[in-house]
Design a protein that fits this description.
With 274 residues, this protein is α/β, with parallel strands linked by helices. The chain has helices at 22-33, 75-81, 93-103, 113-122, 129-140, 145-156, 162-186, 208-216, 242-245, 263-273, and strands at 5-8, 37-42, 58-60, 86-89, 190-192, 195-199, 221-225, 229-233, 255-259. It is built from ten helices and nine strands.
Length: 274
Amino acid sequence: MKGRVVVLDIAFAADFGGDINFASTTRPFIEGLGERLAAWVDHHDHDAHKDFEDDERFILATKAQHGACPEMITPEMVKSAGAVDTVVAHVDLDGIYAAAKWINGGVELYDGADHDAWAVDTRKAVPSPRGLLVDHALRGSFRDTQLKRNIVWWLVNGTKSDGYKRSIVEAAEAFQPRYDQAVYIAESYQLDRNIAFVDARGMSEYDKTELLLLGQQKAPVSVVQGDGMISIAAAFDSGWNFVEILGLDGGMPTRVSLPESRLQEVLAKIHAVG
């Protein structure tokens, strides 16, 4: 990374144990940047936020305070940070929108762009057609680095560049069959108290995120059994903490994956809580 750096939508590493944690990963990164760090803007909960309250470069919030990162970025913030040579951002929709907004001087990328990022990152609302296009493109080709660059510059250019948009549309179209398959599988969800469960073993490719979200429309917790693994999810603000409930070393509190051999244990423990 060259010159002065801004970090956007990058959470402090979790302290659930293991080799990757705040002390081994995040703090050395911060100390390594030193005075080159222009700003760090993030909205993921972490106990270490309090250690940086007196450092104006750190604009840190919780997920409850800000469901997405772009809404935190303002023209005043960008101006105050000064010249920046490198933008480091999470490469999901939320982070990509944050990076583009910073490059755009902190000005909202289009009317409703901040809400689109919030809708996608919280899954509490449906984004606009533009937000949905980007969401589906990323979910269809998440490992495509060039696609992510194209999205940034499409946004910075006011979503007016047909060249960038073409690749985004193609990626979104490629995602559609996986979305449709998730909708089809969701018809087989079975309800058992606080759990919506579906057996998706042997099914052709489907979007697991969409399938889990569809399950949450039926019950507080959705459980998908795949080929060899089970995935468990709940809304980000639901209060569910599967890391604690299932005794895991780390991970997102509201979305985890486990070997399918633990299925009955998982169902029993979730039933016991709810």
